[in-house]
Specification:
about 475 residues, alpha/beta, 11-stranded mixed sheet, 13 strands, about 40% helix
């Protein structure tokens, strides 16, 4: 096994045991980027010299005093919405051409303090306003979409171009590309990870979180990045993160949705997810059927919040340089100008009602298990999907449909790979819990992974 193939936990153990150095690990990952990123285009910017210098410092520090965290000396990528001092933050848009960050975002500063090695910035759908990341190719099939908007981060982790990465999630933008590329993605509880220094899509829906090769790795990154930040008005201090515990799930109540989450889902996705849920019962979990409240209003609430908030953020640049936006993003931003204050306030009221109803639902269960996305990665350029009932749905609407509820309600949501379809494309299962029970979804994911085969496998991208 090459160093770039190691998970974060495996690499941290090797560094701690002095079986591998940060320089060797970073050079291996940089070589992997050089070998495959010309085809995958996961990165907007690669800072190879700075990464090597950081790895040299980490090697010296670990040699002198030992690692100061499990992330010390570990190479990682940041979505190109997240400021890192001295590097561009372009949001994969011509609107931001030439922009260089003056300061680290809070999450970049926390990762730097933990000793992580920044490789560069990963591509996003322009300003995170889309679910495909069109400039990036899927790690498992380059003719298919990477998913978005954190497509570059997901592909980098899946292909061995980063040991872990950070993304953002407003309607599924961590979990969708993670599921489509066969990696783990965590959208933490709203406010648990600071968004200061992170370009916003929708203030009341935005989250920052990790993309990794295992739930254990995601827990390590969350522990390093979570924490109160007075610069983020939504920031909160959560409970200590503890994902330890027994290797079974005895007594855990797993909610199985009767509605919404298995509606208009491909047969292969449904089969793989239900098989994974059955594995949870073999590990001791008890299944409880639940009704998803306000399911018919999910799309209206998501768009009713996100569209006007995004347009408000971009108001000045949309008027000054409208032609620099890509057509799909410009159309969405212009549509937001037509949203009334009444529509926005009704969406906020409906969100409050939905949060309350979901809190009552979680009173009877510990986690909710469901597909992350209703189908595997679509072909690049495919605009719509036709379901068995004759319904025609936009690909982006399809991908956001199952992930949006966790953004609206702010609950933690973890996706992990649970199989492949007939074409070898990854399938993801989503685990959700009540707010600040991030440790619960991570522990369930870890226990599932320990019982499953083939966890953390790198996508078969030929060098």
């Amino acid at each position: 096994m090459q160093p770039f193939e190691l998970s974060l936990a495996e690499a941290a153990r090797a560094l701690r045991a002095r079986e591998l150095s940060p320089v060797e690990l970073t050079e291996s990952v940089l070589a992997r980027i050089g070998a495959v990123d010309g085809r995958l285009r996961a990165y907007a910017t690669v800072a190879a010299d700075a990464a090597t210098a950081a790895a040299v410092r980490a090697e010296r520090e670990i040699s002198e005093t030992g690692p100061r965290s499990p992330l010390h000396g570990i190479p990682m990528g940041l979505k190109d919405l997240i400021d890192a001092a001295g590097l561009p933050t372009t949001a994969s848009s011509d609107v931001r051409a030439g922009h260089i960050a003056d300061h680290d975002s809070q999450v970049a500063a926390r990762l730097k303090a933990a000793g992580a090695v920044l490789l560069g910035k990963t591509h996003t759908h322009e300003f995170a306003y889309g679910l495909t990341t069109p400039q990036t190719s899927n790690a498992w099939d380059q003719s298919r979409v990477a998913g978005g908007s954190s497509g570059g981060s997901a592909v980098a982790v899946a292909a061995g171009e980063a040991t872990f990465a950070l993304g953002t999630d407003t309607g599924g933008s961590i979990r969708v590309p993670a599921a489509l590329n066969g990696v783990v993605g965590l959208k933490p509880t709203y406010g648990l990870v600071s968004r200061s220094g992170v370009t916003s899509l929708s203030w009341s829906l935005d989250h920052v979180g990790p993309l990794t090769r295992s739930a254990t790795d995601a827990a390590l990154v969350l522990a390093a990045t979570a924490g109160y930040d007075p610069r983020d008005p939504a920031s909160v201090s959560g409970p200590p993160l503890d994902v330890t515990g027994s290797g079974d799930l005895k007594g855990l109540r797993v909610g199985i949705p009767r509605n919404h989450f298995f509606d208009r889902v491909s047969p292969e996705v449904e089969e793989a997810v239900r098989r994974a849920i059955e594995r949870l019962t073999e590990l001791g979990a008890k299944l409880v059927e639940v009704e998803i409240p306000m399911a018919r209003y999910i799309q209206a609430i998501q768009w009713g919040l996100m569209v006007p908030e995004a347009t408000a953020y971009h108001e000045r640049s949309l008027r000054a340089v409208p032609d620099l936006y890509t057509p799909d993003v410009r159309a969405l931003l212009e549509a937001g100008e037509l949203t009334s204050a009444g529509d926005y306030l009704r969406a906020q009221r409906a969100r409050t009602m939905m949060r309350d109803d979901w809190a009552r639902m979680f009173g009877g269960i510990d986690v909710l298990a469901a597909p992350t996305v209703p189908m595997t990665a679509a072909k690049s350029g495919q605009d719509t999907v036709e379901w068995a009932d004759g319904t025609v749905e936009a690909v982006s609407d399809s991908y956001v449909r199952l992930s949006a509820p966790a953004n609206i309600t702010g609950v933690p949501a973890l996706t992990l790979p649970v199989g492949h379809d007939h074409a070898g494309l990854p399938i993801g299962m989503q685990l959700m819990a009540r707010p600040f029970r991030d440790a619960t979804v991570l522990r369930v994911g870890r226990v599932y992974e320990e019982a499953a085969a083939d966890v953390g496998r790198i996508a078969p991208v030929a060098a």
